Amino acid sequence: MNRYKPILAGVFMVVTVCSIILYIRSPMVQARSMLVNTVGEDYFRSFMKLKGVQYTSFLPPKSTVVYDYHIQVGNYSTTCEVIFIFDWINRLRHSIGVPLSDNLMPFNVSKEEAINIALEQITQRYLEVEAEIRFIKRSVNDVPLNKYVWQVVFYLTKKSASSGSMVEVLIDLHNGEVFDVAKLAWAST
Prior knowledge:
about 25% helix; 4 helices; alpha+beta; Nuclear Transport Factor 2, Chain: A; 8 strands; single chain; globular; four-stranded antiparallel sheet
């Protein structure tokens, strides 16, 4: 009997690990559940669409569940990704882009209004301007946001230049509040 103890212990360990893995819900089910709990079933069905699930075999193995989040403000439309990353036993490690309950559509600030609000924040002449809705966890100046915002960027030099500078203005989608203004520079090496 003693010679079978190591074998029985190994079998017990394999059965236990397999039971734990099977007990934990699949990443796809967990991601959907988390989104529905945050935004509600109707909002989820209206604006979220499963883009895909990817499993990696790298060590440590993990899986990623990605949803497309359709955002519409007036005539502006974009799709952002909501990403969930799970470890090898299907535990959520982190998520990116999950909208908070106070950060849901309808959004009141249009692209044109966001650009006009941002124009009030800069004093330099600019060559190009871009405005996109993005999920920003933390601004360049370390302001914690963890929400979708208008990101308005004024290029002070040509965007295609090998070095230059720009001003980024982050704006609330509901009321036009300016969260942060940051001057950034880039240079190729």
